[in-house]
């Protein structure tokens, strides 16, 4: 079976076709990144207009790259939630149109579940496993027990790490530096941090140190970084983009503290799984995914944690960590093979506000 996946939850219009073995037969990604950079952030109306403009060419191009036509496609998988409602609506509407026109079943996909499952496409990872999802809109730990069985262990009580990186990069005007001009905030912060010279110049507070649950918080960290930046600007009477090397040192401090926080909470989740016999020894596996998982410093510190506790660690390749159509197609395939959520009749029942996953926080994690 060949599955076509459509992703429009945020600012990327993505489409991909995969076969039953998980080979990518065609993929297309239209990124709005550079347009939103000019506005200083994503404006939902603008994102929606761009999805509307690019969705059809993106899907057509994918079929063309795969050298397939609609007769070859078994089903269409599409992101249902979470995301920007205006953006999600375009993908869903177009998927419904295709479903009617070519008589194909629709498979609704949860964007975060897709981030967590796509690691299985290229690695031999069996259920259950632990996942840490770190992205522009989320930060969560979950136990993945099956394709549609996720047990949430903890999540951010405020903002997400990718969002902090993006805001700090913008406030630092890192994009004024030519070699960073095309990069997303997280990648720019990573590059700046790699040039740090004094790793002890800034001390940032480690969030939620006394909390015994698996939740995250990044607001305090963001505020501290912004405050330190302000202080240094005043001290030297210059703006952030001229504030080198301090800005590099501050990026390094942000990255180190973020990593420590992620490691701290992930270790708690490992303890919780161990104490409740949720993960047998042979299933000690951690999957890290979402855009922030591209960060090598963060991944390396998590790898050290995994080595210490005898976990295997996996992450999808970078282009599959950030938003893409492949992960939607893969999740669609996993559901198709188990006949989960395959909607043939009554596709109008699919509504972008519908909720079909267990999103209750498991309080035993406390
Ligand atoms: P969500 O998945 O929560 O809905 P999203 O889809 O917008 O959010 P992703 O596409 O998964 O997020 O990830 C984008 C985020 O990843 C951005 O905030 C970006 O700054 C961050 N990011 C990308 N590369 C890196 C990197 N190398 N280091 C740190 N952060 C990064
Ligand atoms: Fe995402």
Automatic annotation (TrEMBL):
Q: Where is the Gcp-like domain?
A: 24-330
Q: Which GO terms describe its biological process?
A: tRNA threonylcarbamoyladenosine modification
Could you name the Gene Ontology cellular component terms for this entry?
A: mitochondrion
What domain of life does the native source organism fall in? Eukaryota
Where in or outside the cell it occurs: the entry states:
Mitochondrion
Coiled coil start-end? none
Predominant subcellular localization, coarse grouping? mitochondrion
Q: Which GO terms describe its molecular function?
A: heme binding; iron ion binding; monooxygenase activity; oxidoreductase activity, acting on paired donors, with incorporation or reduction of molecular oxygen; tRNA N(6)-L-threonylcarbamoyladenine synthase activity
Entry keyword annotation includes Zinc:
no
Protein keywords: Acyltransferase, Heme, Iron, Metal-binding, Mitochondrion, Monooxygenase, Oxidoreductase, Transferase, tRNA processing
Purpose? Required for the formation of a threonylcarbamoyl group on adenosine at position 37 (t(6)A37) in mitochondrial tRNAs that read codons beginning with adenine. Probably involved in the transfer of the threonylcarbamoyl moiety of threonylcarbamoyl-AMP (TC-AMP) to the N6 group of A37. Involved in mitochondrial genome maintenance.
Q: Which family does it belong to?
A: Belongs to the KAE1 / TsaD family. Belongs to the cytochrome P450 family.
Assembly, in brief, is: Homodimer.
Q: What name has this protein been given in UniProt? A: N(6)-L-threonylcarbamoyladenine synthase
- Species source reads Pararge aegeria aegeria
